[in-house]
Amino acid sequence: MTTLDVFQFPYMSDNYGVLLHNKDTSETAMIDAGDASAALSALKQRGWSLTHLLLTHHHADHIAGMHEIKSKTNCKIYGPEGIDGVDEVVGGGDRFDFAGNEVQVLHTPGHTMDMLNFYLPDQSLAFTGDTLFTLGCGRLFEGDAATMWNSLSKLISLPSDTWIYGSHEYTQANAKFALSVDPNNKLLQQRAEQIDTLRADNKPTVPSKLSDELKTNPFLRPDDADIRALLNMQDATDEAVFAEIRKRKDNF
Ligand SMILES: [Zn+2]
User: How many helices (H) and strands (E) does the chain have?
Assistant: First the structure.
């Protein structure tokens, strides 16, 4: 199996796009297409030709460039139902091949109801859209907290050495909030410092390892005794604690 080359590039104010390239087959995939010119210049910079475009959800900052990118590259577009121009509609539980790698489609509604995440088990890569971010999770625009908690639980169950590629650089704000609900978590304190250092150098904090998220991302930790004590929710369900954490973040 060929290890894919991964190239992450920023676009708009805080989005990330990602290119995956197999140098043996010359195939290239991109996750999301919010900005055609940023995507096309990333492809040009690497000298890669786009063959596969994987869309996570219908928000404009993830799809606005898809038609221009399609017309310039003739890539095949995979995405959820309801987006005009998708060549192959996929949904939770589907699998397809990218350059000899199985791509598993996870349906993770909550931020939007159409949200798909793409997991490449052979490469330990997961593209989590606006569901899971470094130290954060997406806002609940279309789904409720129970729906989002169920979606995050699917990601929690991936192998802990999986690299999590969320779609946004929200990490510094996420770290501040995380410390407000989990102030005595030493690993979180250390991560927050590392994140400040990276951002001071304008370096990305994406991707992150799932194992680090499991220890420091409060949205994945509603079972944590210290967080529960701080929220005074010792006997609540994980789903109820998650809902409270999400509500606090919305008002933070
Ligand atoms: Zn979104």
Answer: 9, 14
